[in-house]
Design brief:
This protein has 411 residues and is of the alpha+beta class. The protein has 15 helices and 11 strands.
Length: 411
């Protein structure tokens, strides 16, 4: 008969693979182990003259995965007697002892689980596929700069509302924005929740108290979203080099992200690359460039076909006619034929122009916000907005188009 645990364990194993739950549920299944002989399998006649062995799993302190252990039981006349001896051995050695099981995971440090969390994020077997490189880099940065320095050496069992409150207070003292604090805390909670047992149940379930930890409430109306007016866009385009000016015009006129516009290739249509049609009237977004490397867009909504205005299409066609594409087919490329670097374009072009205009430094998203407000001002249907902007939800486009409500550009 299968082994029955003590009432305090609150789990009784009735048949292999099934269990009955009590008030307190153990986080790991008990185990009966596997009795075997060398060269023997079930259905084959038991050899009373051969030694019997027991195979079972052992908890390793500080590790979630268990280690396979094998011991010699001796010689037994029947399989039933060998299984009885195996149960006695496991009970005597506390193999299914609940306290020992808990101790094996209590010593798991936050830093260790953070590494596992990141590894699982880029695992090809992950449900939904690996996360985008930009998301991974953001998580990695949050862990390296804040979470590991403050929480890395603590045990996961000690990470709760009190430690979360210390993290929030530390980030407030460093004058981090409310949005950053909320995002980093979400990563911390996700790391704690990612520690699961063999059945996928959380090892350290928590009831997070946002009031206790003084977690700020993000006021989206107070978030910094720099915007530009029609005249400012025209001035930026006029005061920069023709190559950069055309690139800004495509971002402002086609709602392209910087990574998307630098990934455009002048070649026949392909699902593996972002291309522009021969008449330059359609841009097929299939890739995005990050750190000089092409990658899939962050979401499937970013995969889209964008219509180009006739005048802008003519400008692109003239630009292509004057370019040499011997080194690569990128529409906007360096002298070596590589995609343009976002950092270099900001440093050499956009930021100096904004400074000359008396504006604070800001990124390329000012052009997408301008485009969103322009689409709303011209009453473009939401279906077209979604296709051109590449947003999954209408509320995100609403945030981009906030310039309409404000009525003017704000730094």
């Amino acid at each position: 008969m299968p082994e029955t645990q003590k009432p305090s364990d609150a789990i009784v194993f009735t048949t292999p693979g099934r269990r009955r739950r009590g008030k307190n549920v153990d986080r790991r299944r008990g185990q009966r182990g596997q009795v075997f002989q060398k060269g023997w399998c079930r259905g084959k006649k038991w050899d009373p003259e051969a030694s019997a062995y027991l195979r079972y799993l052992v908890d390793v302190p500080g590790q979630e995965e268990r280690k396979l252990q094998c011991v010699t039981l001796g010689k037994f006349r029947t399989l039933t007697l060998a299984e009885q001896a195996a149960r006695e051995y496991m009970q005597a050695n506390g193999v299914n002892d609940r306290h020992a099981q808990e101790q094996s995971v209590i010593s798991l440090a936050f830093r260790q689980q953070a590494d596992r969390f990141l590894s699982a994020a880029i695992d090809s077997a992950r449900r939904g596929g690996p996360v985008a490189q930009a998301t991974y880099d953001f998580w990695r940065g949050a862990i390296d700069t804040w979470l590991n320095p403050l929480l890395g050496d603590l045990q996961l069992t000690d990470i709760g509302n009190a430690q979360a409150r210390k993290l929030v207070d530390a980030m407030r003292a460093a004058k981090r924005s409310d949005k950053t604090i909320v995002e980093y805390l979400s990563i911390m909670k996700a790391i704690v929740a990612s520690a699961v047992d063999g059945e996928g149940e959380q090892l350290f379930p928590r009831h997070w108290n946002h009031d206790f930890m003084r977690l700020p409430i993000v006021d989206k109306t107070k978030q910094r979203r720099p915007k530009v007016t029609d005249k400012e866009v025209a001035r930026i385009i006029a005061e920069t080099k023709p190559k950069y000016g055309l690139m800004y015009a495509l971002m402002a006129g086609c709602s392209l992200r910087m990574g998307e516009v630098t990934a455009i290739r002048v070649e026949p249509y392909s699902d593996g690359h972002s291309t522009i049609s021969p008449d330059c009237r359609t841009i097929c977004v299939r890739k995005s460039v990050r750190h000089g490397v092409e990658q899939d867009p962050k979401t499937m909504n970013a995969v889209r076909d964008i219509d180009v205005a006739p005048e802008l299409a003519k400008a692109v066609k003239r630009f292509i006619a004057g370019q040499d594409f011997k080194k690569s087919t990128y529409l906007f490329q360096t002298p070596r034929g590589e995609p343009l670097s976002q950092r270099n374009v900001l440093r050499d072009s956009l930021h100096p122009i904004l400074k000359k205009m008396g504006r604070e430094k800001c990124g390329f998203h000012i052009f997408r916000r301008f485009r969103a407000s322009w689409l709303r001002r011209n009453r473009v249907p939401w279906d077209l907005e979604k296709m051109w902007m590449g947003h999954a939800h209408k509320d995100l486009t609403d945030q981009y188009a906030e310039q309409l409500r404000v009525g003017r550009a704000r730094p």
